[in-house]
Amino acid sequence: KFWIGKCHGASVRAGWWPDTEYTSAARAQxxxxxxxxxxxxxxxxxxxxxxxxxxxHLPARRSIEVELADAAIRTLDLLGAAQRQYASERRQFAxxxxxxxxxxxxxxxxxxxxxxxxxxxxxxxxxxxLYESVSRWGISNQLIHVIAMLEALANKLSFDLIETxxxxxxxxxERADHKLEARNAPNGKRF
Length: 191
Hints:
Layout: H1 2-13, H2 24-51, H3 63-89, H4 99-111, H5 114-134, H6 139-156, H7 161-174, H8 180-184
């Protein structure tokens, strides 16, 4: 729960979420965009694995580590938005990663290669959008499972996911291209 608040809070403070209430259609579009961005981080993690490269922003770390941390940050951020939304709608929200879920994710990751685990993560991230509309738990259960798999994959790759998340959040807070002025400029990051 702490990391959900920390990642979502950083994203809100940086202006990545609209300040206003939005319609269900606008929310669906926003959630789809956030899901697509999680996919992009997972694809960048695969590229980091394929090239066996160091990260360009945090060069002391492997690229796959930083990209998996980015995927976790984006997932936790989306969980934070869902948590706020569900509170206003009085819906149930899966708030914590349960030990049994982490154990199940660890077993699944350990049975497969890193590439297979990344492919499975893509599936679970995509399924989260479907669950938003058909499950009483909405997007939260599926994204909690994604976090469990990311933690298990980090353990398999022998790095501390939380430490890497902290380092990337600190880096992102100072990035010029994440500042509102730069994002509003031509060729700026719109989302």
